[in-house]
Amino acid sequence: MSERQALVRGIRVWLVFFVVCLVLSGATAFPLVTEMRWVEGLLSSSLSPVPEHLPGLMDWVGKVREGLDATDERYPFVLYGTDWLAFAHLVIAVAFYGPYRDPVRNIWVIEFGMIACAGVIPLALICGPLRGIPFWWSVIDMSFGVFGVIPLQIVRRRIKRLEALGEAAREPRPEAVAAGA
After folding, report:
1. Has residue 164 got a pLDDT over 90?
2. What is the DSSP string of 43-99?
3. This prediction's pTM
4. Could you tell me which of 93, 96, 146 has the C-alpha nearest to residue 122?
5. Those residues with Cβ within 8 angstroms of residue 163's Cβ, 6 or more apart along the chain or in another chain
6. How far, in Å, CA of 83 to CA of 33, rounded?
7. Is 2 left (phi over 0), alpha (psi -120 to 50) or beta?
8. Residue 100 C-alpha from the chain's centroid
9. Lowest mean pLDDT among 43-52, 85-94, 151-160
10. Are 14 and 168 in contact (CB under 8 A)?
11. In which band, very low, low, confident or very high, does the pLDDT at 167 lie, cut at 50, 70 and 90?
């Protein structure tokens, strides 16, 4: 396998990983009410150490579940916003097909993704307190941006190396220049 083929393969593997994570994180925004009931049941089970060791987490999960239940019962249309959040994740995931197909030409999608990951941090720091989100939960939200940028940075570096290989292939060889070719 040539260096170029190895780079393209590595780029594609990382992109598939990133897209799968993006789709999974988006898909979880559809069934929020059911998910929170499931999470609360799991965390409060007799086998879980969470109630004893992390009572604040249990309180928060209970509060979120109650809020979602009340919203779903009285104002289900509000949850339509999370449906759009999920849809946005899926649409953004589709955009990564461009770099999968032609990494060098579509490096801008990777850079867009990196900017979006960076944007998660100020969003969580500003909107979290405005919405009454505990700081530790905002830290979890910020981790999506921090961990999301890692595969994108790896892909970007590999694309830059792939681009350099392509440019090296187009440059005239020094002996050809000296011979006047």
Report:
1. yes
2. HTSTT-SHHHH-HHHHHHHHHHHHHHHHHHHH-GGGGHHHHHHHHHHHHHHHHTHHH
3. 0.84
4. 146
5. 104, 107
6. 12
7. beta
8. 16
9. 43-52
10. no
11. confident
- DSSP for residue 134: -
Residue 73 burial (CB count, 10 A): 9
Q: Which two tokens stand for residue 5?
A: 């083929």
**pLDDT per residue as tens digits for the range 49-106:** 999 999 999 999 999 999 999 999 999 999 999 999 999 999 999 999 999 999 999 9
Q: What sign for the dihedral angle of Cα 57, 61, 62, 66?
A: positive
Query: Residue 52 is encoded by which pair of tokens?
Result: 């004893």
One-letter amino acid for residue 134 of the chain: P
Q: Position of tokens 């461009």?
A: 98
Structure tokens at 40: 């609360």
Question: For residue 104, what are its two tokens?
Answer: 């060098």
Q: Is 132 left (phi over 0), alpha (psi -120 to 50) or beta?
A: left
Distance, CA of 96 to CA of 178 (rounded, Å): 43
